[in-house]
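ok trying again, last paste got cut off:
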Amino acid sequence: MELLTRENIQLDIEAATKEQALAFVADLAVKRGYSADAAGVLDGLKERESQLSTSLMSGIAIPHTRHASVQDPAVLVVRLASSVDWTDDNVHVLIAMLVPDGGDNTTHLQLLAQVSRALIEDDVQRAVIEGTADEIFSELAGRLN
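nice, full thing came through this time. structure:
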């Protein structure tokens, strides 16, 4: 299964809270076949957020989890219709990373590094903040897959 597909990018999603945004990510993970357990994915994402906010910059957050309910690694991009409070920032773009639990931590750390490096680039930031799904895919796919 591919790490990032065009279908993993969802735009103008309605969410009033951080929890609703994370729940959408968890449901999308199930819909896309990366997990069969939305509640498990949501629990993993919330557990990670309870440790330290994943909000980065410019309204972008990178929620992530290593969880037993995840079957295949995935990157899901969700741009919200409006910003939500994300502990220490207002966030309207989520670049979520899901990795199966078990084994070494290499895949998880590599994904975090790849996404973080990509977000340093102005073209990538512009695409995820205001671009079309095709533009987002074009900017991220070569850097992640």
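cool. The mean pLDDT is 92. The longest helix spans residues 106-120.
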